[in-house]
Design a protein that fits this description.
With 259 residues, the protein is of the alpha/beta class. It contains 10 helices and 10 strands. The chain is globular and about 55 Å long.
């Protein structure tokens, strides 16, 4: 980081034995905060998840890279193991950067990790990142909130849709406000059905944003009634965000001139 930027950031000292929990944004390095970019270059070891792009990791100088990513339905490192690893690395006197996609406190389990570090008296710091939902929507020309279209927005996880422990999608439907769904690609059929049963019209616009801001980025638009079939027909895969609500209709209007 050049001297003028470092002065603006007023970057704290990344001390040995400390863990920094950081958000890498939606994918492209341009969406990193200055402080997170600085930390990537200073870390002795970077413990990163599956949503941190290779382009972001390329900013590491000499730091060791340890992959602990999770993917639904695939073998992955247990959360307790990740927490144990962070504690062990810190106790070795290393500068540990726990790097997550988006923001560490938005469906990133950063709260659990921070709590465990606090219980073990491991010094830590939180470095916020651009949460993937809001960054991806902006990059796709979909305003998260807009007067006349939305007064609130819900960020929800969709991986458990239809299970006894799931959200009350019918209640969310009754708000009439837009919903952004993380981890909902495999359950989009159930989510759409429950929202329609809750009162959202079948023609409600839906956008699916796959691998937002990365070279693999793809977008599809559909309706609640057709989105599950379109996801399958167009062979969309995780990571993907699902945007449900009238705000999606603004994409066609804004995309014409926004370059």
């Amino acid at each position: 980081m050049n001297e003028s930027i470092e002065k603006i950031v007023e970057a704290p000292v990344f001390a040995r034995g400390h863990v920094w929990l950081a958000g890498a944004g939606p994918g492209h390095p341009r969406y990193l905060t200055l402080q997170v970019a600085d930390a990537i270059g200073k870390a002795d070891v970077i413990v990163h998840d599956a949503l941190v792009s290779d382009a972001v990791l390329s900013l590491a100088r000499n730091g060791e890279l340890i992959f602990v990513g999770k993917r639904g339905g695939r073998p992955s490192v247990a959360q307790d193991e990740i927490i144990g690893l962070l504690i062990d690395l810190a106790r070795q006197g290393r500068r540990v950067l726990r790097l997550k996609g988006g923001d560490p406190f938005v469906f990133g389990r950063g709260g659990e990790e921070a709590e465990a570090l606090a219980r073990e008296n491991i010094p830590f710091r939180i470095l916020p990142g651009m949460t993937s939902a809001l960054a991806a929507l902006a990059a796709a020309n979909i305003p998260a909130t807009m007067r006349g279209l939305s007064r609130a927005i819900t960020l929800a996880t969709g991986h458990a849709a239809g299970s006894p422990d799931d959200l009350d999608w019918k209640a969310l439907a009754k708000t009439g406000e837009p919903i952004v769904v993380y981890m909902g690609l495999k359950t989009i059929g159930a989510i759409a059905r429950l929202l329609m049963e809750g009162g959202l019209p079948p023609e409600t616009p839906v956008a699916v944003l796959m691998a937002a801001t990365t070279p693999d980025e793809r977008t599809l638009t559909a309706t609640l009634a057709t989105v599950a079939a379109e996801v399958e027909r167009q062979d969309f895969a995780a990571p993907a965000l699902i945007v449900i609500g009238r705000i999606v209709s603004m994409q066609a209007i804004l995309s014409g001139q926004n370059r």
